[in-house]
Design goal:
Strand content: 15-25%
Largest sheet: 6 strands, antiparallel
Number of strands: 13
Number of domains: 2
CATH architecture of the largest domain: 4-Layer Sandwich
Oligomer: single chain
Structural class: alpha+beta
Length: 428
Amino acid sequence: MIEKNNKVKEQWNFIFKVFPLVDLPFNALAIYSSNHWQISLAIAIIIPIVASSILYFSEKKNFQPGYWILAINGLLFFPYMYYSGAQSPTWLTLINMTVGSFFMFQNYKIGQYFMSFLSIITGLFFYYMGSSLEYALMIIFVNLGFIILFNRAYVYMQMQQSKIEEKNTEIESKSKDITDSINYAKRIQYAVLPQEELIYKNIPSSFIFYKPKDIVSGDFFWYHELNKEEYILVCADCTGHGVPGAFMTVIGSSLLNQTVIDNKIYKPSAILLELDKQINFTLKQQENGNLTVQDGMDLTLIKVNKSKSELIITSAKRPIILIRDKEIQEYKGSKFSLGGMLTGDKDFEETIINYKKGDQLYMFTDGYVDQFGGEKEKKFSSKRLRELFLEINHLPIKKQKEMLANSINNWQGSLEQVDDILIIGIGF
C-alpha cells in the first residue's frame, strides 16, 4: 500500500513538473488562433484543474487516475477543438495527453492503444471541421509517430528501472547477509571476551564502558584471576576497527590466554614481551612479502595484589590515570606497540604503586579522546577526558559509567563515531 502511494506521488510530481512545459506554449498558440478564444481559454483552464483534482483524490482514495482523467478530459477536448476551429493547433495537446496516458495507467499499453485511437478520431474530427485531408492525415501520423517514439522510450526506461530494482534487491540481499554474518561474528567476539559479570563479581568497584564503532570492535578487555588475592586486567586497542580489528582482538585474547594461563607467565613486563613475540610469530611479521600483516595493538596491563594493596602497571603506548586525593597521576606507557614492524629490542617498564582506599584508576583506548563533536566539531581531547575523570571519580561506580556515556553521546551529537571506545575504571 505504501509503495503504491509513493508511486502515485512520483507520477504526480512528474506530471506537474513536465506538463506545464508542454501545455503553456501549445495552449497559448491554440487560444491565440482560436475562433472563440474566450471559450478556448476557459476550457484550457478547466482541463488541468480536472486532472489535478482527480490526481489529488486518487492519492487520497488510492485508485488509478488514468481512466478518469482521460475519460473526462477526453470529453472536454473535443469542444476545445470545435470552438477553437480547424485552423487552431489544439491537436498538439494530444502530445501532452500521450505522456500522461503512459504514466497514469498500470499497464502502459492501455494508454498507448487509447491514444492511438484518439489520434485517429482527432484527425477525422479536424477533417469534419473543414481541414484538408492532407492536414488531417498529418495530425494522425504526427501523433502516432510521437506515441510510437514515446512508447519505445518508456519501455527502455522501464527496462532500466527494472534492472536498477534488481540490482538494489541484490545489493540489499548481500548487505543483509553481510550484516547477519557480522552480527554472528559479534556473538563470537563476545564469547571470547571475559564476561563482564564475572569481572564485576570479583572487582565490585569497577566498570567497563565498551562502545564499538561498528557491530564488532577492535578494542578488547581481558581478565584472569591468578588466585583469591591477585588478578590481571588488560585494556587493549588493536589496529583498525570493524571486522579486521575484531580478528586482532580474537588473536590478542587467545595469545593472552596462552601466555598467562597456559605458560603461567605472571610478570607484567614479561607478559608483554611474550605477547609481542607471539603476535609477530602468529602474523608472520618476521617475513618479507605482500601477505605479511604488520598490524599490532596498544594496551595497558595491571596486576593487582589485594592483600598487599599493590598495583603493578605496564603499558604499550597507552597511558593510565590514577586519581588520589583529587589529584591526577598519569603514568605514560612504553613507546613500543605490540607486534608490527620489528625495530629492535623492546622494553616494557613496570611501575609499582601501593594504592590506598579511595584511589580511582582508569585505563582507556584512544577512541574516546579522538571523537569529533562539540560546537566546533573538534576532538574530545585527552585534557577534557582528564577533567571529566576528576569530575566523576568520587561518584558511585555505575554513575561514573553513565556519566562517561552521556558525555560522549552529547559531544558526538549527530556526527559519526570515529573509532571503538573502551574505558575501564577501578575503585580501590
